[in-house]
């Protein structure tokens, strides 16, 4: 059995310290890609469930030896420590609870580098309490727990927060703060300077009237930004000054001072002020500050990366990315960053120009056609010789994916379409066929009518190199079967011939003409060779025999067999059964 295709965007990726490698959570493994070529260099294998977090151990200084160590967490309940240059598993910590997210503050804190006495390393993890009763309507299955990575155990009795479901943990770049979202609340904890098993962490809560979707910490200042389901971005300045700095607030962040003027801040939230920005028409999916703190990057369903200037609120854009944005990740190299998109692609960006350098493409997600044409749509096509699967994509395209090498080869844009979230689907690629050697492809696209007016069926023939699958359009045929929908497309195994069948009661065979130019055979296009029908019955399927000598076309309850060269009906299969059934 040949297997291939994993999600590259289930969790944020992580750059190596030299920014030459990108570590990507791919199912039960972590795949290591080269940022210069976009090709996979290796993988970390050992987890037995989805890997949810990968954290690269920072180098002690820019001039120091490049470290190639990382921590990973998984739904299998383990935290693992790796040397990803080898690769080699160094350590395993079993917490026996599915881990949905993990942060390790001490890796980011510069204070621990100068510590004279080595201390334990703690991770804060978002886990699912599998012991909670699902039958309880208000069961809290999500927990934020503390794990001692040095002693390979959970910190006993320390549960920072319980939520209805496990939430993603976000940490500041300094390791001083981390937090989670819980509906309309933002919970922020301050990491103590000296950590121990049972130290109590102080927390503040920031409130909003809408559900939060994502948030981020400023790298150097007491500023936190959060996006919501309406597309707004809220920015709190001076958060936690009373509770975290002075230590006179309560543990839940409620201060006793009610007299200060705090513009935009709700209730008694511990912040100096709160401002709101709004450009996204849909929910904000990714939000992050630049490494110098001068800008905020945001993105969502629109497929547009927005860069906000913190001081002025001015914006610039990277449009037409083609898919909703999920994550934006900076590297130690200020000229390199990555964007993860919902279409299972990771784009490497040259900063600050925001030019796309490379794309790491996983297999595309399944496309769900509108119900009106779902019965017309064929599934994916497998090229057995090359080990390549061709499948429909949401953006009116065909992706070629190698199952042997487990990576995307190319993508053909059948018809142009700019990504516009929320727009109704107007065109559907319903049929797809490949020739035996993979050098030709045929597609059928249906333009849906508006109020029963303006529908269109289009048949296209493409040619491509058998290796890289970069296709070139040869022939476009509008309404090949008058106003009828095409039920099937198939290529003849032995010759440049194809067949299309239609619900309108006929089938057509097509041939490709050749001409010699400069000593090479050039494909000039596809033309109709013959037309056939059987008692005007709808033709529901068509295919050639393995040796190409027989063309079989289904006509409702019977199968008609034809000589494809002479277009002569030679046999009928199924009449006797049809009579018995009718009787």
TrEMBL record:
PANTHER family: TRANSDUCIN FAMILY PROTEIN / WD-40 REPEAT FAMILY PROTEIN-RELATED, TRANSDUCIN FAMILY PROTEIN _ WD-40 REPEAT FAMILY PROTEIN-RELATED. The keyword Nucleus applies. InterPro entries: Beta-prop_WDR75_2nd, WD40/YVTN_repeat-like_dom_sf, WD40_repeat_dom_sf, WD40_rpt. Pfam families: Beta-prop_WDR75_1st, Beta-prop_WDR75_2nd. SUPFAM superfamilies: Calcium-dependent phosphotriesterase, WD40 repeat-like. It is found in: Nucleus, Nucleolus. It comes from Eucalyptus grandis (Flooded gum). Keywords: Nucleus, Repeat, Ribosome biogenesis, rRNA processing, WD repeat. Residues 383-567 form the WD repeat-containing protein 75 second beta-propeller domain. This is WD repeat-containing protein 75 second beta-propeller domain-containing protein. It comes from the Eukaryota. WD repeats lie at residues 72-92, 277-318. The keyword DNA-binding does not apply.
């Amino acid at each position: 059995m040949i297997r291939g295709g994993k999600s590259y965007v289930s969790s944020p990726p992580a750059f190596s310290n030299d920014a030459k490698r990108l570590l990507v959570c791919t199912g039960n493994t972590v795949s290591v890609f080269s940022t210069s070529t976009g090709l996979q260099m290796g993988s970390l294998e050992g987890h037995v469930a989805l890997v949810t977090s990968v954290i690269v151990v920072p180098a002690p200084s820019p001039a120091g030896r490049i470290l190639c160590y990382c921590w990973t967490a998984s739904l299998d309940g383990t935290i693992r420590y790796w040397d990803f240059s080898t690769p080699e598993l160094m350590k395993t910590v079993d917490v026996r609870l599915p881990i949905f997210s993990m942060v390790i503050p001490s890796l980011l804190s510069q204070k621990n580098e100068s510590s004279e006495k080595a201390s334990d390393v703690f991770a804060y993890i978002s886990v699912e309490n599998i012991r909670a009763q699902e039958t309880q309507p208000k069961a809290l299955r999500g927990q934020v727990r503390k794990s001692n990575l040095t002693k390979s155990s959970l910190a006993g009795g320390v549960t920072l927060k319980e939520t209805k479901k496990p939430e993603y943990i976000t940490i500041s770049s300094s390791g001083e703060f981390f937090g989670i979202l819980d509906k309309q609340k933002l919970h922020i904890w301050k990491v103590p300077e000296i950590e121990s098993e049972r130290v109590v962490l102080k927390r503040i809560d920031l409130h909003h009237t809408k559900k939060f979707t994502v948030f981020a910490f400023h790298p150097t200042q007491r500023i936190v930004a959060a996006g919501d389901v309406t597309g707004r971005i809220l920015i709190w300045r001076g958060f936690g000054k009373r509770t975290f700095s002075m230590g006179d607030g309560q543990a839940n962040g409620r201060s006793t001072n009610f007299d200060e003027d705090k513009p935009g801040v709700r209730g008694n939230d511990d912040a100096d002020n709160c401002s709101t920005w709004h450009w996204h028409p849909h929910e904000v999916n990714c939000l992050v500050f630049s490494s110098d703190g001068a800008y905020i990057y945001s993105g969502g369903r629109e497929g547009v990366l927005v860069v906000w200037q913190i001081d002025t609120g001015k914006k610039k854009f990277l449009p037409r990315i083609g898919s909703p944005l999920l994550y934006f990740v900076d590297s130690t190299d200020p000229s390199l960053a990555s964007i993860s998109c919902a279409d299972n692609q990771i784009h490497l960006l040259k900063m600050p120009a925001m030019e796309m350098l490379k794309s790491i493409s996983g297999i595309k997600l399944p496309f769900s056609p509108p119900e009106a044409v779902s019965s017309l749509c064929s599934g994916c096509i497998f090229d057995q010789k090359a080990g390549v699967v061709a499948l429909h994509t949401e953006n009116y395209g065909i992706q070629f994916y190698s199952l042997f090498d487990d990576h995307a080869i190319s993508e053909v844009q059948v018809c142009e379409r700019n990504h516009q979230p929320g727009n109704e689907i107007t065109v559907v690629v319903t049929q797809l066929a490949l020739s035996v050697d993979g050098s030709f492809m045929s597609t059928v696209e249906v333009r849906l009518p508006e109020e029963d007016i303006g529908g269109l069926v289009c048949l296209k023939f493409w040619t491509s190199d058998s290796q890289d699958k970069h296709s070139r359009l040869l022939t476009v045929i509008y309404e090949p079967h008058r106003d009828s929908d095409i039920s099937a497309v198939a290529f003849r195994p032995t010759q440049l011939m194809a067949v299309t069948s239609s619900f309108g009661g006929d089938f057509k065979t097509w041939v490709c003409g050749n001409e010699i130019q400069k000593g090479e055979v050039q494909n000039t296009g596809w033309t109709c060779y013959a037309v056939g029908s059987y008692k005007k019955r709808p033709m529901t399927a068509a295919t050639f025999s393995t040796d190409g000598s027989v063309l079989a076309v289904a006509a409702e309850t019977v199968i008609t067999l034809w000589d494809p060269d002479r277009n002569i009906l030679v046999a009928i299969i199924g009449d006797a059964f049809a009579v018995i059934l009718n009787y």
